[in-house]
Input
Amino acid sequence: MQYFGSVLTLAGINMIMVIGLAVLVGYTGLFSMGHAGFMMIGAYTAVIFYKYLGVPFAVCILLSGVFSVIIGLVIGYPTMRSRLTGDQFAIAMMGFGEAIRMIVSNTEPVFNGALGISGFPKLTSLWVVTLLVALGLILMFNFIKSAYGKNCIAVREQEIAAEIMGVDIVKTKVIALAVSAFYVGVGGALFAFYMTFISPAMIAASKSSDLLAGVVFGGMGSISGPAIAGGALAILPEILRAFSTWRLVIYGVLFVVVMLFKPEGLLGYREISFKPVIRFFGRLFGKKTAAESVKTDNRNGGDADE
Amino acid sequence: MSDFLLETKNLTVRFGGLTAVEGLDFQVKKGQIVGLIGPNGAGKTTVFNMITGVIPPTEGEIFFKGSGIVGVRPDRIARRGLSRTFQNIRLFEKISALENIVITLQREPGYSLVEAFLRTKKVREIDTEIQKRAYDYLELVGLREYADSVAGSLPYGLQRRLEIARALATEPELLLLDEPAAGMNNEECDSLIDLIRNIHEKKGITIVLIEHHTDVVVNLSDEIYVLNLGKLLAHGDPHAVQTNEDVIRAYLGQGRKNK
Output
């Protein structure tokens, strides 16, 4: 039972990070190969504030997000400003991720270099993670629905046209990066307080591609898709543990199969919709909820393809 | 001096050794429909690209509403009231026709990022209002029934109309149309002429039009500029341009013995 709980907790943490990255990769169309860097920043920020400055856990989580955003802005503004194209940006982020790892590994004071920091309690529980996943999802859906989210879609679909229609490309991309940095930073903090130990080796460069895989796997224009994929990809290795050495092979084959037969990802450009369920119950009780009537007016038949 | 809405002076751009546009002086008065024609490769679209800020000119100046716009970012130029459509359609393909307009109407959110995350009452109200306005624009170009269709899946002619609607959603004073009738049959051309005239008259928008369909250009334009190999070949009212010998030669080629 405890094993179950721990797998679910890690799955939840992964979900938070993957939905964050989905805004940047799926919605804005900017691939990042270095978001492990933000995870590292989040993890160390939370631990340092908690252990050395005695800041409460909840505040530490928030600070780790905020600090990731600040670093994200520092790295993001120049890269967006100089208009790096998709692949250039991905490589720039890869450099960023590695740089963060090397800085942490080689800084003895405070960071304790490659040995890492230990000696803080396990404060990330399944309940905390569940709560944050729910909160993270709600806020993210709101963001996506807002004008800011729509600008992201415009940039992904047609950058030149978006700009000529008056969308501020640089600002939109920087916001997308900042939002993703916040989520991944928070994920990093939760991760550290779950493991009760943090070292640079725990957040390897491959973590970036794991997160990226979650988004690509889940769907490039979706939040619920990557959320599911993020959770599943954290659980899958545990299920496949019985196959030990064959685990990675199965993992890899699964990816190839998905990319071949469903290149747009699990949910593609759609979201999981509970509208049919709500409508069913609405009909059962003979009333139409306000939210439902607005939604059906706005996009009649839009959920028929779910 | 500036009774011109748009004015270019000595507009020139070189790509390496190739001079795509050379010394173009181009003027558009408020309320006009101006045609820009010329054989393929004459540099017409390049002129649009320079005006909208996508390509920086090598030399020369561009004035919009009396102020210079060379070096101004495309989104800033757009917000000053200049919009365009594209020769090779550039819609936001994977989303619905309605969303294409909604995005354009919401290019400046009008609320903070925090409000966006919390989806406050204000955000919801703005959303509802924007939706309504988006339907109006679709109505204007006759696409209301296609509101929920994915933009990229619409027939070609309708995609062109959607692009016009999207450009209008920026509430421009000047609209640049890049071959709006490309790939359309005569019937579709006629209804396009009606649409453009309608936009011009009802919304009072000044229009510059690149077009190969002579019917469309001659029918609509108050004035026509003819470009050939990047240079201004002729300029005048439609009738004068149609009978201009240089223009005929540029389009049909020159007889060998004249050489």
